[in-house]
C-alpha cells in the first residue's frame, strides 16, 4: 500500500537507497567525517553489537547509514540477513576455500569471530573522527546518554 500522507510523493522522489559501493563512490573513497564524540559512540556500539552477534554465531550482517540532508543528522544501524554460522555455512566455507585459486581474495564465508573483526575494520575505514569546535580532550571518550 502506497503512503498517502501529505508530502509522501515528494519524500519518495527524494529518498534513495544505495549500496556500500555507492557510499564509497559518493565520498570518493574517503571516510565519512564525524565528530569525535559520535565516532567514539559508534565504535563502542559496533564493538558490543558485533561481539553479541558473534556469541550467537551470527554472520552476514551489514551496516545501514541514513543521512537527513536538511538537518545533517546521521543514523547508523546493523541490519541485513543475519544468519547463523551453522553446518551449511561451514560446508559453504570449505567448498569456497577448496575452489580458490592461489592469490585470490579470502573466502567470503568466514567464522563469526573473523566476520566480526572484518566488519569492525571496515567500519573504521568508513567513518573518520574529525575535531569540531565543541570537542575538547576532556570529552573525546564520552558516550552520549542513552534514551
TrEMBL record:
Residues 1-127 form the PIPK domain. The keyword Hydrolase does not apply. Keywords: ATP-binding, Kinase, Nucleotide-binding, Transferase. The keyword ATP-binding applies. One of its GO terms (cellular component) is endosome membrane. Coiled coil: none annotated. Gene3D superfamilies: 2-Layer Sandwich (3.30.810.10). One of its GO terms (molecular function) is ATP binding. SUPFAM superfamilies: SAICAR synthase-like (SSF56104). GO terms for biological process: phosphatidylinositol phosphate biosynthetic process. Pfam families: PIP5K. This is PIPK domain-containing protein. It comes from Phaeomonas parva.
Amino acid at each position: 500500500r502506497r503512503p498517502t500522507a501529505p508530502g509522501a510523493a515528494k519524500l519518495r522522489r527524494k529518498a534513495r537507497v544505495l549500496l556500500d559501493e555507492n557510499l564509497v563512490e559518493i565520498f570518493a573513497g574517503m571516510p565519512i567525517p564525524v565528530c569525535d564524540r559520535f565516532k567514539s559512540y559508534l565504535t563502542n556500539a559496533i564493538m558490543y553489537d558485533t561481539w553479541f552477534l558473534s556469541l550467537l554465531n551470527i554472520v552476514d550482517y551489514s551496516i545501514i547509514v541514513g543521512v537527513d540532508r536538511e538537518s545533517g543528522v546521521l543514523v547508523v544501524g546493523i541490519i541485513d540477513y543475519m544468519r547463523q554460522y551453522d553446518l551449511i555455512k561451514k560446508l559453504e566455507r570449505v567448498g569456497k576455500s577448496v575452489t580458490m585459486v592461489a592469490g585470490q581474495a579470502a573466502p567470503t564465508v568466514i567464522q563469526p569471530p573473523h566476520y566480526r573483526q572484518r566488519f569492525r575494520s571496515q567500519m573504521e575505514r568508513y567513518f573518520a573522527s574529525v575535531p569540531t569546535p565543541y570537542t575538547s580532550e576532556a570529552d573525546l571518550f564520552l558516550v552520549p546518554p542513552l534514551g
